[in-house]
Design brief:
The complex is a heterodimer of chains A (73) and B (438).
Chain A: E1 4-8, H1 16-26, E2 33-38, H2 43-51, E3 54-60, E4 66-72
Parallel strand pairs in A: 1-2
Antiparallel strand pairs in A: 2-4, 3-4
Chain B: H1 14-37, H2 48-78, H3 85-109, H4 113-138, H5 145-171, H6 179-211, H7 218-236, H8 238-241, H9 245-271, H10 280-304, H11 315-354, H12 369-391, H13 396-435
Helix pairs in contact in B: 1-2, 1-3, 1-13, 2-3, 2-4, 2-6, 2-11, 3-4, 4-5, 5-6, 5-7, 6-7, 6-9, 6-11, 7-9, 9-10, 10-11, 11-12, 11-13, 12-13
The chains are: A alpha+beta (73), B mainly alpha (438).
Chain lengths: 73, 438
């Protein structure tokens, strides 16, 4: 079963969601997934993910939350 | 959803930092000048000391911080490329710093060559700056309230320094200009145009992002820049048409309604913030917005309360409003933003440098919290002392020293963040050197 870690960054001040996500990437198993919840598109995070071989999928929820699912490519 | 920021085009960290670190130095000089000049400085807005103090605060402290912030903000928030930001900052920053110093010295010494040299340097520096930032803003791929506010703010900056330069020529007797009326127009475009619109445009981004509030309502972003522009154009038309005092009062009231609206909306959004923890930036912002509302009340009172004096006939009103605007509103908000932006930029630049292998220190370790809180308390104490000094002049020396001390503390806090940046950057570079292939 896929190991999933949810980081709810909606009530965190920048760059706390980024800090927590980067810390979680360190321990992410090969088939693991991080689910990050934000009210924005975190461009700095996307740059880091792109450079380090991760992929992500965004989906917009009804309340304006951007749900970002991050995995190893 | 909140606006997004892209850091692909962010300039080197030294571009904004050189402006940010210079700004408080002008505050220190202003505070010491006030303490040295004593009670006479605040008897009217027209004393040489008051004119020097005003320009040390608005063109020294505020303009330095705003110019530096915009060089960082435009590429990040608007996705707009600024042409060679390192070169622009390297030219504009020293020219502005020297120009404002000469201008202030010129006000104190009388309308001589220092005043002209200072004004010339400032106009040259700002003209280059406006062209570079203006082109970037016109080509910005992002649309929206912030871009409109920044474009109109930049236009207002041109009008402000254009009138300022003309006023210097008028003071020197080179051209005949209506000094009092033109000064009122110059001040209105500088404070209500450039400064307030820049503050609003940046607030649409940073208040929801850092203070975790709902987004600003769209109507405010549409109404504020065009409304303020209309008010400022009407206010400036007094130079051509000689508008009656009654009309000017109505124009002023319209401007106050717009400014007060921005303050009320900001305070209401902050009341709805999602994370209710003490935050220095939030308190600075609230202090700024309360000061803006106090200005609105003071202006309305000055217009409406019998015998309804004009500002030129009521020097205490004008000086009080100046203190509330410069120290209470703009320097409070700028300081609060610096305490959020500088640690954030430290973190982002160090993270980019270190990649995923070396994580930068936590945001909260960039500037000690106790230092920021202490400086904030001293800032508001100095604001209270400055306001009291208008009513009780013997307090002027103490108020000046308190303000200078709060600016020294601010500079120290910013330098401590820079020290963290430099130390950690050196560690990353040393680690890279160790791992480099021999």
């Amino acid at each position: 079963m896929t190991q999933q870690l949810v980081i709810d960054g909606r009530d965190m001040q920048p760059p706390e969601p980024l800090e927590q996500t980067l810390a979680a990437l360190d321990t992410l198993p090969p088939d693991g997934e991080i689910v990050l919840l934000l009210y924005c598109q975190p461009q700095p995070l996307y740059q880091i993910l792109r450079r380090n071989g991760y992929s992500w999928k965004e989906s917009m929820l009804a309340d304006g939350t951007n749900e970002i699912r991050i995995r190893k490519s | 959803m909140h606006p997004n920021m892209s850091f692909e085009q962010a300039p080197p960290v030294w571009v904004p930092y050189r402006f940010f670190l210079t700004a408080p130095l002008f505050g220190i000089v202003a505070g010491l000048l006030l303490a040295w000049a004593g009670p006479a400085a605040l008897t009217s807005r027209w004393t040489p000391e008051a004119l020097a103090l005003t320009h040390l605060l608005v063109a020294g402290f505020m303009l330095q911080a705003m110019c530096g912030a915009l060089l960082q903000f435009v590429p990040v928030a608007a996705g707009a490329n600024i042409w060679r930001p390192g070169l622009v900052a390297g030219l504009v920053h020293p020219m502005l710093a020297v120009g404002v110093s000469l201008l202030a010295a010129g006000f104190l010494a009388g309308p001589g060559p220092w005043l002209a040299a200072g004004a010339g340097l400032i106009v040259t520096a700002l003209s280059g700056y406006v062209i570079v930032v203006g082109v970037a803003l016109l080509r910005a791929p992002v649309k929206g309230a912030t871009i409109v506010a920044l474009r109109v703010a930049l236009l207002a900056l041109v009008v402000t320094y254009g009138f300022g330069f003309t006023l210097v020529q008028g003071l020197r007797g080179s051209v005949g200009v209506p000094l009092v009326e033109m000064t009122n127009v110059h001040a209105a475009w500088g404070l209500g145009g450039w400064s307030l619109l820049l503050l609003s445009g940046v607030s649409y981004y940073v208040v929801p992002m850092f203070q975790l509030t709902p987004a600003y309502p769209a109507w405010l972003g549409r109404m504020l820049p065009w409304g303020l522009l209309a008010v400022l154009l009407l206010w400036a038309s007094r130079l051509l048409t000689g508008l009656a005092e009654g009309w000017l009062s109505w124009i002023l009231l319209a401007g106050m309604a717009l400014a007060g609206g921005f303050a009320v909306v900001t305070l209401r959004l902050q009341a709805k913030r999602r994370r209710r923890v003490p935050d220095v930036t939030l308190t600075f912002f609230r202090g700024g917005m309360v000061s803006l509302l106090a200005v609105v009340v003071a202006v309305v009172a000055a217009i409406a309360v019998p015998p309804a004096p004009t500002f030129s006939e009521a020097p205490a009103w004008a000086v009080t409003i100046g203190i509330l605007l410069f120290v209470g509103l703009f320097i409070s908000v700028i300081t609060g933003m610096l305490y959020k932006i500088v640690p954030f930029l430290n973190w982002l630049h160090l993270q980019r440098l270190g990649g995923l292998t070396i994580m930068p220190p936590n945001m909260k370790e960039m500037i000690p919290e106790r230092g920021m809180v202490g400086q904030m308390r001293l800032h508001f104490v100095s604001l209270a002392a400055l306001l009291l000094a208008v009513a009780w002049p013997p307090l002027t020396v103490v108020a000046g020293l308190l303000f200078a001390a709060s600016c020294v503390w601010l500079e120290w806090n910013l330098l401590s963040a820079v020290r963290v940046y430099v130390d950690f950057r050196d560690r990353i570079l040393a680690a890279d050197a160790c791992h480099a292939p021999g």
